[in-house]
From TrEMBL:
Pfam families assigned: ClpS (PF02617)
InterPro entries: ClpS_core (IPR003769), Ribosomal_bL12_C/ClpS-like (IPR014719)
Name assigned to this protein: ATP-dependent Clp protease adaptor protein ClpS
Gene3D superfamilies assigned to the protein according to its UniProt record, in alphabetical order: 3.30.1390.10
Residues in Adaptor protein ClpS core domain copies: 21-83
A GO BP entry: proteolysis
GO molecular function, one term: peptidase activity
Key words, A-Z: Hydrolase, Protease
Length: 91
């Protein structure tokens, strides 16, 4: 018989809100690769190559984290992605 040890790490709520927020972009059947790439360059300040890689990942894997950072900054960027017709959420 083995004993399993559980460890609970204490994390400050501000750390969770400020540093661990991600924008996840999801695949859809509506938007073109070009539109997704252009939007990621404009909204998330990606390079063309980075935006293209994210678009390919979204297409083949179904989703991709396109940005991480502070909740407040990412909230505005996520809204811009949604306004552009992309499927995205903050996690």
């Amino acid at each position: 018989m083995s004993t399993q040890e559980q460890v609970q790490e204490k994390v400050d709520i501000s750390e969770l809100l400020n540093n661990n927020t991600e924008i996840v972009l999801y695949n859809d059947d509506v938007n073109t690769f070009d539109h997704v790439i252009e939007t990621l360059v404009k909204v998330c300040n990606h390079t063309s190559e980075q935006a293209e890689q994210c678009a390919i990942l979204v297409h083949y894997k179904g989703k991709c984290t396109v940005k991480t950072g502070e909740f407040k900054k990412l909230q505005a960027q996520c809204l811009q992605l949604l306004d552009a017709g992309l499927s995205a959420e903050l996690v």
